[in-house]
Amino acid sequence: MVIDINKDNFKKEITDSEIPVLLDFWAPWCGPCKMITPLIEEISSERTDVKVVKINIDEHPEIAAEYRVRGIPTLLIVKNGHVNGTMVGATSKGKLNVFLSNNL
């Protein structure tokens, strides 16, 4: 299950998470974001070692600014409250799984 993040649930779902978190920074107008959405949803249902969350940068620009997101889609791995890995741009499911495995 992919969780939508906002200011109210950010700390609980990301900072205080007991398992690593895959953050997907996206926007509804972003073509590459739309391309990887099905992959993100598949990862969410297939993997139990990572929590998957989405952050709409149009609705929450302050969160995107905090993580210095400059292009979308941007995927971050957050582990114990710290960024462990960053991937920018659309990717394949295979490369996404390697990114996760290398950064969890």
Distance N to C terminus: 18 Å
The CATH superfamily name is: Glutaredoxin
Q: How does the major sheet shape up?
A: 5 strands, mixed
Question: What is the level 1 CATH name?
Answer: Alpha Beta
CATH-assigned fold name: Glutaredoxin
The tally of domains stands at 1
Helix content: 25-40%
The low-confidence runs, each spanning 5 or more residues with pLDDT under 50, are none
Strand order of the largest sheet: 1-3-2-4-5
**How much of the sequence is in beta strands?**
25-35%
Structural class: alpha/beta
Overall pLDDT level: 91
By CATH, the architecture is named: 3-Layer(aba) Sandwich
How many β-strand runs?
5
Task: Give the overall shape, derived from the CA principal axes.
Answer: globular
Give the SSE layout.
Blueprint: E1 2-4, H1 10-15, E2 21-26, H2 31-46, E3 51-56, H3 61-66, E4 74-79, E5 82-88, H4 93-103
Parallel strand pairs: 1-3, 2-3
Antiparallel strand pairs: 2-4, 4-5
Describe it for me?
It is a single chain. The chain is α/β, with parallel strands linked by helices and 104 residues long. The chain has a single domain, classed as Glutaredoxin (3-Layer(aba) Sandwich). The protein has four helices and five strands, in the order E-H-E-H-E-H-E-E-H. The longest helix has 16 residues, at 31-46. The protein is globular. The mean pLDDT is 91.
Summarize the structure.
The chain is of the alpha/beta class. It has 4 helices and 5 strands; from the N terminus they run βαβαβαββα.
Comma- or semicolon-separated keywords:
Glutaredoxin, alpha/beta, 5-stranded mixed β-sheet, 27% strand, 104 residues, 5 strands
